[in-house]
Amino acid sequence: MDGAKATPGRTAGPYVSAAVLRLAILTLLPGLPDLLTGRVEISTPVTSFKRLQEGLFLYNHNVSPYDGGVYHQAPLFLPLFSLLPSFSSFPIFTYLLYIAVDLLSANALWRIADSGEAGSSALFSSPRREKRWSGFVIAALFLFNPFTVATCIGRSTSVFTTCAILHAIAKAVSGAPFGAMVALSFASYLSMYPLLLLPPLILLCYDRQRSERATKSGLKFAATCLSLVAGVLAVLFQMSYLVTGSWEFLRSTYGVQLTLSDLTPNVGLWWYFFIEMFDSFRSFFLAVFWLHLSSYVGGLTVRIRRQPLVVLTLLLGIFAIFKPYPSISDTSLFLAMVPLYRHVFPLMRHTFVIAAVIMYATFLGPAFYHLWIYAGSGNANFFYAITLVWGLGQSLLVCDLMFAVLRDEWEVERPEMVGKEIRQI
Amino acid sequence: MRQFLPFLWLSLLSLCVFSQAASDPDYHEQLVLRPLPLSALLASFNFRSNTTVSEFEKGNFRFFPRSLGQILQHAGTRELHLRFSLGRWDAESWGARPWHGAREGGTGVELWAWLEADTDDEADRKWLTLTNALSGLFCASLNFIDGTRTTRPVMSFQPEGDHSSDANLQLLYGVLPHEVVCTENLTPFLKLLPCKGKAGIATLLDGHKLFDASWQTMAIDIRPICPTNEDCVLQIEQTVDMVLDIDRSKRPRDNPIPRPPPPHELPCDTSKPYHAHDTCFPVDHTANQDWSLSQIFGKAMKGTCPLTDPDVPPVCLQVPNTRSVFVSEGVREKKSPDQLSRCFEIPPSNDFEIVLPPPDDPGQSPSAVVVTPETPLLYAERSFTGHGQERGGVRTILRNPSPDSVVEFIYMETLPWFMRIYLHTMEARIAGHSQPDKSLVQQVYYRPALDRARGTQLEVRMRVPPASTVFLTYDFEKSILRYTEYPPDANRGFDVAAAVITVLDARALGNHSSSIDGGRAKAAYYLRTTSLLCSLPTPDFSMPYNVIIFTSTAIALAFGGMFNILVRRFVAADEGPEVGLGVVIGGLQGRLQRLVKGVRGKR
């Protein structure tokens, strides 16, 4: 089951079938894309396709899309989608673009899986590393995950961020720090939060440098990477400035994420908290929430220094819970990375509870949202309660994976403890 | 001293003579009563006074109310329009609006003014001064017209007065659809009149009747008028239009509960095939067209205002000349040559009363009983589509009744910021066609809303072909607000201001097509749709503490759980120090024993 040995036909299998599945859904169920685009679980104010269309419409009619409260996405989407044939007359081109982005993400994931980085990194080799899934299985798990399919059909622009992050990781594990940093800069430019992935990604790049031109000094390497990211971001911002003609976009895209001025419900924990927050404490808690989100980066990077890919995976899981505007797209990215750790699955303690809680929230979330917004027989607390359960379920998964990975590390020092009961002091 | 006195007398006398001479044409008032179909009566009160601009600038107010004049001077306002409105004009049965809609506003309070300002900031400052001062003067919440409710219309409003072209005038427009217009707004309105509602037609204005009307609008318009070769005058025009339900108004105040009339008093349409002794289809147009002034307004009119221009008859009644009308003694009736209206000249000190008896023949055609209403240039109706509190749509149905002429108009909406409209979904479609027609919308001016800073401003220049109906639709999304931003009655919904439709003058369009692009097209007719009620999703207002605690707990669980795993060491279950309840109890026991031993040892 090694990806390197796979025949071209076998490689193309999941890609072709995933593309066919998506095309079939998009063409056979013409009402579904717009329905999914309107779902709060899929489209957030910063990723919604309908808002992108509005921004595009204003952009094409010479009204600044950032001088309004609807469009909060990166400026470079505007020329990109303007180049495509008009969505209202030729939707197929937009569909093809989204499908291609999904396939590119799957391809990056395939390469990450085939590198074996999850089981044996530069500083650590798991004794269980032989027990793993091939890139084929992992790419298929990503492509056929209902969350991924729904995101693609709902045409949320978070798929571009997902693709950029996966490519950054794939480049890093294949020993191409330059590509990794450029891809991460793109992801950060699109969604801002991937910037927090920079420390573990630099470590991953550092560990996987090609030996012939390796930089020995870690600090020097990190400084190079940081300046590279800063340079690429500066170029992107300059291009955005040229496209929109003003710096207004900074306040409208990143400012909205920082201050949460749009309180549209989503699957995260922020929206209801800041609806109910007293005005005098709003800024304080915004700072606390952002500080909380970034507090994990340092702790995880230091503690799991030997496996930077684990840190990246766990951080993606944490972002899917605690970022300002999360959607199921972020969860699908995390769930795409989790199968890379097939070898530590036996060490996880609460798999059934996690699966049950996530399924429970998946099915009850839309139902409770309907009760609140449409039926009027429930109130906002119904949906809020489900987002809490969803967040708790995911944090349990992150905790459990973290535990399993750490135990796996520990068992290298204490091989006699395999299968024994342990505790933490 | 002796030499001085005659001079003083002379100057005083001249002053009196001068003011008397000037007073005559400077003020007039008129009430026009027009019975409408379906037992309704339109009463239009109009009060108009002039003062020369030079006198005004010196602070010599005569008929111009000083309180208002000082506000205008202080806020640098050159032209002002203020509207207080209530109810809905039923264009289908009542026809065209009075004054061609130029003296009416949407439900609530509307204010627009041309301010003299060099910059936008200066205009905003003056606007703030103006709204706050007017708020105090009219006892209305005009001070709530803040940045989110203020727009600067580009195409819709044109100044009515004559302004010098070098003045830097800025038009600002604010609307409060939620404001309930009531007696406290009428009292200051009447105080602005020279006769203060003590004499003349203003004595008929009574809060009980005015705010019980099916539709009413109070308007104040101030504009400078510069006739050629004469001094500029500042004109203030106060207008009250109301449509009274005759049935309802005739109910005695001490017994207001309506009771069904006995069957033999029901006016029935005998032409219906199913008409019989036990079935009755009510006759719409001729029913209840008998009334008297004191029945309708609760009192008779007390003479005329002595300051009014005697050449303008104070009361006019628009009924066909064939109908008989009884009036009080001493009143002279003047019938107009078009056979459709008559005016009354009233002796200054007598009470005035009109009695309109029921039509002689109940079966005669409606046009013999009431003047057939004029067909408006355009019918407009606006409503929400969709359901749920997440998103919706707005649909405006615009109907051109004319069989041969195109109607061109500007449709303006000012929407609150929490209605996020999607302009790319806006389309205009002719009824009966499935595809939107791009040629209907000619020009769009759009200023998107900014959260908590300003509302949406949408102006669409459209045309409706003859005898057709056009649907203008767009989608919007309802945003959820912070819980402190909801009003106390959050589940009632939020009022959305009326759309203002300015129908452009077709003749002017034909003649000066080039000047229209400069936004100078003359308005032929104004109409406003009803205001709408938009229900937003609401959070649970009762539990901010609970939400803060629950969310914080969830975050603490995740944070604690993860860092617990990160910072603690792994050991086998049987290694390391003991933990648990037993260890704690054991430790406590040991300490206690040591303490007891120590105490004993000291003894």
TrEMBL record, chain A:
Name recorded for this polypeptide: Phosphatidylinositol glycan anchor biosynthesis class U protein
Membrane association type: Multi-pass membrane protein
Main location: endoplasmic reticulum
Transmembrane segments: 12-32, 133-152, 186-206, 218-243, 269-292, 304-322, 352-375, 381-406
Localization (cell): Endoplasmic reticulum membrane
Recorded family membership: Belongs to the PIGU family.
A GO biological-process term: attachment of GPI anchor to protein
UniProt keyword annotations, A-Z: Endoplasmic reticulum, GPI-anchor biosynthesis, Membrane, Transmembrane, Transmembrane helix
Superkingdom of the organism of origin: Eukaryota
GO cellular component: GPI-anchor transamidase complex
Pfam families on file: PIG-U (PF06728)
Listed pathway(s): Glycolipid biosynthesis; glycosylphosphatidylinositol-anchor biosynthesis
InterPro entries: PIG-U
Automatic annotation (TrEMBL), chain B:
GO biological process, one term: attachment of GPI anchor to protein
One Pfam entry name: Gpi16
One GO CC annotation: GPI-anchor transamidase complex
Basic and acidic residues bias: start-end ranges: 247-256
Signal peptide: 1-21
Region (Disordered): 247-269
Keywords per UniProt: Membrane, Signal, Transmembrane, Transmembrane helix
Sequence intervals crossing the membrane: 543-567
Record's protein name: GPI transamidase component PIG-T
